[in-house]
Specification:
Layout (H helix, E strand, L loop, with lengths): L3 H17 L8 H6 L2 E5 L5 H17 L7 E5 L7 H17 L6 E6 L24 E6 H9 L7 H12 L1 H13 L7
Parallel strand pairs: 1-2
Antiparallel strand pairs: 2-4, 3-4
Helix pairs in contact: 1-7
């Protein structure tokens, strides 16, 4: 079982090498460069524990200075391994935002090692836009996102560009990239 430091190191590499390296999220470059991505970790092993720690992490994120934490990742290496369970859990995160009157202030995006879009086959490389080394939740400040969108032409084309890129790279290459993050090795394209 990886240590907290190892989980965070793998996640940082995923952000740098896949999210930013492949330009899957053009808005991630700046927070990565500025060091304003927060990484919070839960060692909870069940839904209740993850939920309680997610609430604490979200509260800490919301109270943090946006200049120091522009965006954040809440990583759950020991829970929600099954994508269907994780997907069900997402309904709770939506409810939390609604109940806390945080809609319009923060979004929670989803990433999971087994991520599969509803309209995609499990082996479709397009799923790698949301596949990550561990189950995690991405906290996004709406204000930061709006500011980034002001300076990015045609943001609605990002998903289509990502799908085309990942399908060109292929499932095998993308899985090898994820596997290399965990082992600390460099990805060698075949």
């Amino acid at each position: 079982m990886p240590t907290d430091a190892e989980v965070i190191a793998v996640t940082r590499r995923w952000v740098a090498e896949i999210v930013v390296g492949l330009n899957l999220c053009p808005f991630a470059h700046q927070p990565l460069k500025q060091g304003t991505i927060s990484y919070r970790l839960s060692r909870a092993t069940d839904r209740e524990g993850v939920y309680a720690e997610l609430l604490q992490a979200l509260e800490a994120f919301l109270h943090a200075d946006p200049r120091e934490e522009a965006t954040g990742l809440f990583i759950c290496p020991d829970a929600l391994a099954d994508f269907a369970d994780y997907n069900d859990f997402l309904e709770l995160t939506d409810a939390v935002l609604a109940e806390a009157d945080l809609e319009g202030w923060v979004q929670i995006a989803s990433f999971h090692p087994g991520y599969c879009f509803a309209d995609a086959a499990p082996d479709d490389p397009a799923n790698y836009t949301n596949r990550s080394p561990y189950p995690m939740f991405h906290f996004i400040r709406e204000e930061e996102l709006a500011r980034a969108l002001e300076h990015y032409p045609n943001p609605e084309a990002i998903p289509e560009r990502n799908i085309a890129l990942l399908r060109e790279l292929g499932t095998r290459a993308m899985q090898e990239r994820l596997d290399a993050l965990r082992t600390g090795g460099a990805h060698e394209p075949r």
